Amino acid sequence: MITYFQERNIMIEELVDISDYSKGKNCSVIISLSVYYPTADRDNLLTKKYVNEMTKILQNVLDDKLLWQVFKDSNHGPMIFMGLDDDAISLKKLMAYFEDNHVLGKWMVIEVFDNINHIIITRMMAGISERKCVICGDSLKKCSQGEKHSVFDIIREINRSYVEYKEGIELF
């Protein structure tokens, strides 16, 4: 099983690569977006739907700050990178809000890279509490490291969340 934190490390590596792309594009922050999916088959129809839906949502929310975006389809699954002109800490807080409160955002790995200081902005740096497990509400770190939930349970919940979103139950 691939843990949330392994997925996060992949995104950080991809962010470093994409920061080279952003040279000369005058963006102060880069956001990366992917889906936490616990198997090696992360490039599938469901993960593409998740990334597509969250991209539309973030484009609407970040419209006036969005300078560019790049879609990357890899064996790690679909990823979106967005270059923005904004304060990195404020954006981290907004992205954490999506991760914590939006039915799709709860399964997303959203990283915020300060392109001026060349650092990943962590929840701790932004004064935000650590992520909670979507399934049980415990610390995500604890559940991920202990592999507390089965791959089947995680994928079932990822699917359930998408169906809930598409049925319009999400009141975000």
UniProtKB/TrEMBL annotation:
UniProt entry keywords in alphabetical sequence: Lyase, Nucleotidyltransferase, Transferase
Protein name (record): citrate lyase holo-[acyl-carrier protein] synthase
EC category name: transferase
GO biological process, one term: prosthetic group biosynthetic process
Presence of the UniProt keyword Amino-acid biosynthesis in the record: no
InterPro entries: CitX
Example of a GO MF term: holo-citrate lyase synthase activity
EC number: 2.7.7.61
Reactions catalysed: apo-[citrate lyase ACP] + 2'-(5''-triphospho-alpha-D-ribosyl)-3'-dephospho-CoA = holo-[citrate lyase ACP] + diphosphate
Organism: Clostridium oryzae
Pfam families linked: CitX
